[in-house]
Amino acid sequence: MLKYRHVRNLGFGGLEHPVMNLLGNPEVCTNGAILDLWHPVVPTSEIEVGIVRQVVLLGQAVSYSLTAPGTYFAWRTDPAIPAGTVFMPSVVTENLPVLHRYGYLWTSLGDPSESLFEIPEYDEPDRRNIHAATIGVYCSAPRAVENFLDLGHFPYVHTGVLGIEPHTEVVEYDVHVDPENNELWATNCRFFQPMAAATSTTGKTVGYEFRVPHPYCCLLYKTSPLDSSRVDAIGLFVRSVAPDYIEANMFLSLLDESSSDSFIRQFQQLIFAQDKPILENQNPKLLPLDPRAETPVRSDKLAIAYRRWLSDLGVTYGVLPKT
Amino acid sequence: MIKLFDYILSVNCYKQRLIMSILDVPFESIPVDFYPGLEHKGEEFKKINPLGHIPVIDDDGFMLRDAHAILVYLASKYDPTGLWYPVNSPELVGETTQWMLFAEGTTNTASAARLHVNLGYEFDIDSCREGAHRLFRVLDEHLWFREQENRDWVCSGEHPTIADIAIFPDVILSEEGGIARIDYPAIRRWTDRVKRLPGFLPMPGIFPTADARPLSHEV
Amino acid sequence: MACFQRLEPMSKSLTNLWHPIASAEDLPYRHIFQGQLLGRELAVWRADDDFVNIWENRCLHRGVRLSIGRNEGLELKCQYHGWRYANRSAGCTYIPAHPADAPARTICNRTFPVCERYGLIWSGEDPTGDPPEISLLEKGRTLPLRSIAVNASLNLVLEHLANYRFSLNGDPGNLAVTTADYLDQCSLSVTATCDSKQSTVLFFVQPVDSNRSVIRGVLCSSPTDSERLLTLRHHSTELSHLREKVELDALKAPLIQPMTPTIEQVPITSYEIMMPSSGRKASLRVQVLRKWVTAEGIVGLELESIGKPLPTPQPGAHIDVHLPNGLVRQYSLTNAPGQGSLYRLGVKLESDSRGGSSCLHETVKEGDVLAISEPRNNFSLRRDAVKTLLVAGGIGVTPLLSMAHTLRNNKLDYELHYFAQTDGHLAFPEVLQEFGDAVVLHLGLSPEATSKELTALLLGYKSAMHVYVCGPGPMLEAARRIASEEGWPDTAVHFEYFRNTIEIDSSSSFEVSLARSALTLEIPSGKTILEILRANGITLMSSCEQGACGTCEVPVVEGDPEHQDVYLNDSEKAAGQRIMTCVSRAKSPRLVLDI
User: Fold this and answer.
1) CATH of C133-258, one of 3.40.190.10, 3.30.530.20, 3.40.630.10, 3.40.50.170
2) For C44-85, how does the pLDDT look when each residue is reduced to its tens digit (9 = 90+)?
3) A107, A139, A158: which is the final residue of a domain?
4) Cβ–Cβ < 8 Å for A259, A199
5) Do C339 and B218 touch (CB under 8 A)?
């Protein structure tokens, strides 16, 4: 029933009329800053043993599979090894690098660093690590990340869940780049939430930290409703299919002991589904890095820093670079 | 209390939540892990619905499946005015049924495209989109002429029917499937009217609209 | 039939033409129509006062389509972060993430010209000249047809329309012979003749994008009620048939790249956004449209722009009025964002008038031209309060009226307490009536009784309540004291003084260093910081120049300010991080300012 989308569809603007589907081509990434990174392929929980499956990553078809002993493989799609067939490792002529981390299979189309960014919480014994969903969105990866880093939209997009009018104020917070790992951080963020998590029933001001360790991956840490000295982690790991189409993976690492996995997943899917129409209605679809392209205000400090950080990294895929 | 086997992102489940909210019928939502759990395809759920799909309702032991059948049941049983499913008028009940069948079409095209984009369901996306645009053209023309007759809803009566409830979710979420509504201004106005129905309830992906202009408005 | 190709070489560019972009009926109240012209998407909305707004369909903040937002009657609210934009001016009126700050005036949506004519809404990217006047449509009654969106280019649609056939009686089996004439490169008339009877339809083809168009037809006659629907149905059906043929042809034609309209850059960069951007300039010219006595000793003035539209009147904002006698005075705007394209002021004749209010009362008359500044807002309204109290003393009601309008339009909980001598002293009684029960009048009270009433209404402070007070000095002082006693934090109590009644002591002398300009200046006794800065070529905004309005505020990096203003509250004064350069001085020998 479920199929891993290997047909790359055109961007939203081109979809509106069938006649337009003939225009344009999938845009294959040539941006070294992006190619050399690890990218999430699929959640490993959805990988079937011994079957070839296929996705699109950065405009290129990538196949993957898993052998019975538990070894993951990924390679640039070869018509001789079609999706849906039985997998035999020996037929792959050139393997792509793979990592199995945080419940996902990761690969790279360039020359990646040895390891992926660390999420120390993942290995804490009393946590539950959950893959909530993979959802396709007609937007660029950086637009999705920027939205994930944003507090001000909570009362309007996640009304009654993550925010509610009139509690709309975004108070001053701190932004810094961690020089050791070149990660972008926002700390001391606070926002009023009428329902602070799947397990909450009353409103309160919740503390957040945001972390961007990768141009297309980000995490937020929020005060745990169970233990105010610890945090829950929620991650967004984006696979950019095309500059303006993504498949977003949502990851959680929670202290919650009572809610079912299914309940937590559905809550997270609800939140993401509320963001989706916003992301699909942004124009331009690519994130503009020129500071004068859009109108930031003080509360957009993190978004401003993210755009600058992308510029400094030399990211050109999924963005409108500064002219 | 009515139990609704429910998935928050399903348009067909939303149709039931919407009509029950409008009719002020209390219900309990039983979440089904539709994605990624595929719970509705599991053996346990097939005892509830051997076809393996949602929604299903359990009204004090009476089980019913299929979105549009459930709408007929809920309106027939819980709407004392008889206006939402107007069985007393042969013309109106005929029209209601006609447009409920139209909604099968919007579900199989617009909502199928949405499932393909969001969750990777295997459908012929181009034909889903073309089919949805064909239906939307028909609906837009129909609603435009309804407006010319000072009517707000898909059926010819003054009151909305379950046909509006059946079509609305497929239409309002069409953009998630890559089907824009810019060419359907009469449909866009009608969606605003549906959003202003007393008891209207959104689902993720649907935003409420502004209140209507007060009748005695001074500027 | 005129040939399109022959017209083209001498034709205007499509961007310089007026095009119909919607039907009038596409714009019911509280709806946002999604349109597109020459590739650019438009958000088109009719305000409650019937003004039609045509804006670029993207919020300036993050580019989200405004057509998924809400038309709240006089403001459009973006769905993403709740930013609000005013009817007519398209200026941003509120940014909920920063409820205490007035949005910079530069945040203004891109608007396009508008004209409602022949049942159609006309606009253009950059049209030259007036909207078209079409003699065929001027003469008699007309009937706009249902618009038809087509997936084909403008030229292809026109080619097919030139062969459009229809019936005079709505009978599809009886299509009449037609002749077509091009009016210009986007429109043509088609006339059907049958049994010596004639019917003409004008077609305007809207170039939506390279491969998309909308056919907008207007019938040059008005059928009877019984024939009206039949006629409309007939054309809708025949045009739908035509569309099928055009689209089949379009599939055969080579595809043209979609148009890529440019998105304008915002005028200023990020961190300047909340900073004032102009000095004490009388940059606007207005004409006195109406002047009337609204209460004893108070005249109402309505000022209409000459030339460019007036900037958005944010609630609480004031303007400088440059009077014919050379004086400059500040007056609050009483109307709210989106309420008309004019500014409404209330001016009280001061018994000790130094020539300001008396000039407006006695000399200025309807039709006179005045110079005014762009509005400034140092008394901005938060819209995130659980309840807002507005407390007015006398003419101090003026900024609170614009606030009350805004709170009412936003359906927020508020009360307007109006202290005045008698009901004959109540300004704008017709406006007060609109607020209904939200207005509480307190008439003819002594200072003691006023304090008692203030105590009663300030009782029971709850978190997220806000109070705005404007009135005479003694009343403000009383309100400030009582609010503090009743547990209101300084941040919840907002004041606007008409004037500073504190005796200014300018005897001290000290040194001022400018951190960013690397300049050190001596402030001698008898001169203000503002004066010395200006004398040294530093542009700084100011307005009242008596420590009341907050316009000339500057951040302090180092040193101990001697506050003599009434703008900052006690905790702000104690913090010593800001100074009003028009009146305040230094206790320490040196002040370092962040400019």
Assistant:
1) 3.30.530.20
2) 999 999 999 999 999 999 999 999 999 999 999 999 999 999
3) A107
4) yes
5) no
* Helix-helix angle B11-22:B162-172, to 10 degrees: 140
CATH code for residues C510-593: 3.10.20.30
- Strand partners for A163: A159
pLDDT at C273: 34
- pLDDT over 60 at B23, yes or no: yes
Q: Which residues of C touch A244 (CB under 8 A)?
A: none
Name the band, by pLDDT with cuts 50, 70 and 90, for residue C298: very high
User: B141 vs C236: CB contact, 8 Å cut-off?
Assistant: yes
For chains B and C, CB pairs below 8 A equal 67
Per-residue confidence (pLDDT) for residue A105, from 0 to 100: 98
Domain coordinates of chain C in residue numbers?
19-131, 133-258, 284-372, 387-497, 510-593
- Assign domain C387-497 one CATH number from 3.40.1010.10, 3.40.50.80, 3.30.43.10, 3.40.50.300: 3.40.50.80
Most confident segment among C200-204, C225-229, C322-326:
C200-204
Give the pLDDT band (50/70/90) at residue C281: low
Domains and CATH numbers, chain B: 2-78 (3.40.30.10), 90-195 (1.20.1050.10)
* Buried b or exposed e, range C429-464, using 16+ CB within 10 angstroms: eebbeebeebbeebeeeeeeebbebbbebbeeeeee
Regarding whether A279 and A214 lie in a shared domain, the answer is yes
Listed ranges A19-33, C149-163, C574-588; the one with the highest mean pLDDT: C149-163
Contact B120 A2 (CB under 8 A): yes
Is C19-131 a domain of CATH 2.102.10.10?
yes
* B147, B192, B219: residue with CB nearest C31: B192
Query: In a mutagenesis test of the C interface, which of A20, A22, A281, A298 is the best target, namely the one with the most C β-carbons within 10 Å?
Result: A281
Helices B185-195 and B125-148 meet at what angle, rounded to 10? 80
**A250 with A164, same domain?**
yes
What is residue C107's predicted lDDT score, i.e. its pLDDT?
87
The reply to whether A309 falls in a domain is yes
Q: Is A6 within a domain?
A: no
Cα–Cα distance for residue pair B98/B155, rounded to 1 Å = 9
Asked if residue A139 is part of any domain, the answer here is yes
Report the sign of the C-alpha dihedral through residues A57, A61, A67, A72, in that order. Answer: negative
Closest Cβ opposite residue A9 in set B125, B176, B179? B125
Residue A58, domain extent: 12-107
In a domain, A233, yes or no: yes
CA atoms of A30 and A201, how far apart (whole Å): 48
User: Looking at the domain C284-372, which fold is it?
Assistant: Elongation Factor Tu (Ef-tu); domain 3 (2.40.30)
How far is it, in rounded angstroms, from Cα B82 to Cα C276? 61
Each residue's pLDDT tens digit, A64-76: 999 998 999 999 9
> Tokens 């539950």 map to which residue?
A128
Distance, in Å, from the CA atom of C131 to the CA atom of C54, rounded to the nearest integer, reads 15
Is the Cβ–Cβ distance between C457 and C469 less than 8 Å? no
Chains that touch A (3 or more CB pairs under 8 A): B, C
- Matching fold, domains C133-258 and C387-497: no
Among C28, C240, C340, beta carbon nearest to B189: C28
Tell me the shortest Cα–Cα distance from C22 to chain A, in angstroms: 19
pLDDT tens digits for A22-49? Answer: 334 457 999 999 999 999 999 999 999 9
Task: Identify whether B36 is preceded by a cis peptide bond (ω within 30 of 0).
Answer: yes
pLDDT of C361 over the 70 cut: yes
Residue A21: Cβ within 10 Å count: 17
Q: Which of B82-86, B92-96, C328-332 has the lowest mean pLDDT?
A: C328-332
